[in-house]
Amino acid sequence: MLSVIDAEDGALPPVLPNIQHLGLASCNLTKLPRVLRYLDIILELDLSSNQIGKSIPGWIWVVWKDTLGKLDLSNNAFTSLEKSSLIPMTHLNFLNLSFNRLQGDIPIPVISLPYGVVALDYSNNGFSSILPNFGRYLNNVVYINLSKNRLHGHVLTSICGMRELQILDLSYNNFSGLVPYCLLEGGSLSVLKLRENKFHGMLPQKIKEGCMFETIDLNGNQIEGGLPRSISNCKSLVLLDVSNNQILDLFPSWLGSLPKLRVLVLRSNQFYGTIGGLQNGDQIRDFFSSLQILDLAGNTFSGNLHSEWFGKLKSMMASVNNGQVLGHQTNFSQGFIYHDVITITYKGLDITFNKMLTTFNAIDLSNNSFAGVIPGSIGRLVALHELNMSHNAFMGEIPRQLGDLAQLESLDLSWNQLSGEIPQELTSLTFLAWLNLSYNNLTGRVPQSNQFFSFSSSSFEGNVGLCGRPLSKQCDTPSSAASSEGSSWWEDKVGVALLFIFSGLGFGVGFALAIICQKVCHVKGVSVVLSRWCHGI
After folding, report:
1. Residue boundaries of the structural domains of the chain
2. What's the angle, vertex CA 218, arms to CA 341 and CA 286, rounded to 5?
């Protein structure tokens, strides 16, 4: 690991090299090196991941006003900016102040570039306010990340005037009021993240034809009403997350026509009704053909699941080994990808994925009122990694076709009304790390091979008809059952044979033999037959 030591004493070199690109990331710096002040033509400076504290000095904006294009001060301990929140820069196109302890007003770089793009990342700080004219100075900005600060109040309408803005992340703040109509109904945004704020009321309804959205993330607000049907105008939409709100609506089957939709998260709302079969028009076109994550948990959906519905999820049927991280390529920095964040229940835990592979497939229908049998057509979704259908009213047997889900890592069918035996086919799921079949009406022996040796009794509890390890209730061994069955057969045969013999011997001899046999014979079948024969006499 490289460490840079800036001596307090000692003269600086009279002539410094013309350094234009300087990277001092992760160098254990605790303050800005004095030598930086004498680098007057620097273009790019990276001081990220050090331990530099106190204020960001104002001389930076003076010495490098006409040269600096990229400045990365992220992952340090800066607490404030010297002088004004307005930063006069003419060529700055990338400023990263994320993961510091900065407070007060959001700084505004006053950029005079008539061309190019700008990215600003102020996330993970303690900023509490935005100047009213914030958007007026940032016409060229493409990317703004203000997430995880202490911002509050209404979103400034001046942001809507930023004509080049493509990615806007305001998540994990305390913004309130309605979602500004200009953010959803505007034309330039590809990513809108308002996750974990206090937005309320209904969403704007008039999203334009040809909208550019790839991600709409409204998770964790207080949004009411129904989903705007005009979202179907966003043909490039990849992710829609409206979970943890108060949305009251039917299942949005009209989203099935979106060709690139990969992630649909509707959990913890008030959606109701069935997800139904396909309409006539759906039989001849793609229907959720690119979907890889479907999360409907925690609503009031009901009714039966139709097998043909799952037969349309083409992306979950493709066995692809190589995948990309779900994210968005931007044009302001070569190689920079903005990643989507997704929270799902996986292996029994709520997990937030900051990077999600395009090959990861999951279905969560838990905590609803679905009924009927589990369609065997789910077994065609061979790329599925997680299936959660717990806390519903499913009946019938566990489909044997689930044994075809070769990539499955997590299976939860608990708290239903499933019956019959656990299919032996499930033992072929060699990647299965989490299994929960508890609290059903399952019977028979727990399978005793492969992955099933690794599951604890909690995976099967609440099924009074189940037996065998890891449960404390043991099953009758096959040898005992066979011995008992064989003994019963022998007894019956002997008894019948003796009956014919005694009948042939006549009444006198037969009666005497019957008395003798009842004295010395301990074979149950013989005794019963003789007793009945004697009684008949």
Report:
1. 250-257+270-475, 491-536
2. 80
